[in-house]
Amino acid sequence: MENRRQFLAISFSDLVTYEGREEYVKSLISLDEDRRLDVLYDQYHINPDNLHALLSYLQNRKGKDSGLSKEISQILQTPMIMNTGYATLKTPSLKDQYIRGLLALSSYSRNQRLEVQFSVNPANLLTLADDLLLFRQKFNGYPNYLSALNDIMILQELHSSKDLTEKESQDSADESIHVASKTDKQSIETVPETENAVCINGEIGMPATMAKNFDALFNCPIGFYAITSPVITPQGTTYQHAEIREWINQKHSDPIDRSLLNESLLTSNKLFSDIRNLLFETDTKLKTRLDLQQLQKLLTCPLSGELLTDPVIAADGITYNRLFIQSYLASHNNMTPARIKQTRPLYTHRFILNLYELVHIDQLIETHLISENEKLARQQHETLMAPMREYINTRARKSNFTGSSFGYCAWDKVIAHTHAIQALSGKMSIHTFFSQHQRDLKVLNQGTSKTVARPALEYLESLRIRNS
Q1: Looking at the domain assignment, is residue 380 inside a domain?
Q2: What is the pLDDT of residues 140-153, one digit of tens each?
Q3: pTM score, two decimals?
């Protein structure tokens, strides 16, 4: 484990044996400070839980850790340091920590952070740019180093030209304000900032946030042009196939977390292509209308029948909710629903998460496609569904088990509770549930499932009698 690339291929949280964790710690301690910090920051940016787990292990470990616990504690303070004005950071170690944190951010998040730094004090960006150039040799190995420098320069130029324009137009602007009547002001204030969001036949105007975040959502992070042949890496970012293939041939590592990467680990991102085809008029032009109904279908997990909330891509290239595909794989000899062997970890679908975060697609679907009656019914049924959802989450995290001859596997239990929830939420008719899912009824009337599902089954039975 002396090679740094081997470190990056392993998340500390995935090491479950004492021997593996002890070897990892000893190898970390043997590194020089700069290399050790590189590894720790990589662990942090892959998942902060890695460092929390490592710190917890060190606190219960006998023997000296050569300052490793202190270094980890400092790195875990990164979010707090990132909220501090860069020019106010006094020590080299704090500035080092800020820069490492900045270079690990996505392009969108990094630009947001830089905007805040500028708004607090323009000197923050000047100092940051100077330090990036001064310590070029130290940070040049980061994939985002040149992009960060470019972002700072663009931001400075943008604000410089904006200040000049505002100064030149100040006199005419003041005159316009005096001339404008009170009625004019009121009419201006009532003009919405976004497009008309009236839903007609399941369609709304294309959200302004879609175009605003075009680069962050649809451009390749390497080539900076629209992705037309999408593939996803184990880290979860989507790239243009030709660009990431060339990167791998040169760097042999992931552009984001620098873990080992080869072309065999790339997976075609089918959902990205489907969504792109739905949203785009041409390769680079968005449509003027958004078909929310069709988008909702694309963003629905084929196993749970619900909107993707924790999306992952399996070996078959299909996107599922994590807990449901994990449970399915455990109960089907690691074969996906498309009968493809799952031989590697599931890939987090970061594009979908970004779509929710930047465009709020999930909220638009909730607002425009869920009727008031459905919302009311959902509220009434939530007390019945909540314990069943919790049961699904618990069972889905467990592997398959054999038990006695009349027992059911974890997947049977998960899918039975899922069908009951679908019947409660109106996604499956009560007639269909009782007539075509007899096996589900048997599963729901056994063991712990019986206790959890009984109130829901009694309620569904009363609805069936009422409607018969």
Answers
A1: yes
A2: 767 677 778 877 87
A3: 0.51
396-428: buried (b, 16+ CB within 10 Å) or exposed (e) per residue?
beeeeeeeeeeebbbbbbbbbbbbbbbbbbeeb
Q: Name the residue with higher pLDDT: 185 or 104.
A: 104
> Quick one: 240 and 358 in the same domain?
yes
Dist CA 106 CA 394 (whole Å):
32
Give Cβ neighbours of residue 22 (< 8 Å, ≥ 6 apart): 61
Cβ proximity of 58 and 42 under 8 Å: no
User: By mean pLDDT, which of 171-175, 316-320, 429-433 is the weakest?
Assistant: 171-175
Residue 339: exposure state from Cβ atoms within 10 A (0-12, 13-18, ≥19) = exposed
Q: Which helix (H) or strand (E) holds 232?
A: strand 230-232
Q: Residues 209, 341: one domain?
A: yes
Closest CA to 323 of 395, 387, 267: 395
pLDDT at 46 over 60: yes
How far is the C-alpha of 90 from the C-alpha of 95, rounded, in Å?
A: 8
End residue of a domain, out of 76, 110, 137: 76
**Interatomic CA distance for residues 141 and 316, integer angstroms:** 34
What is the rounded CA–CA span in Å between residue 143 and residue 258? Answer: 8
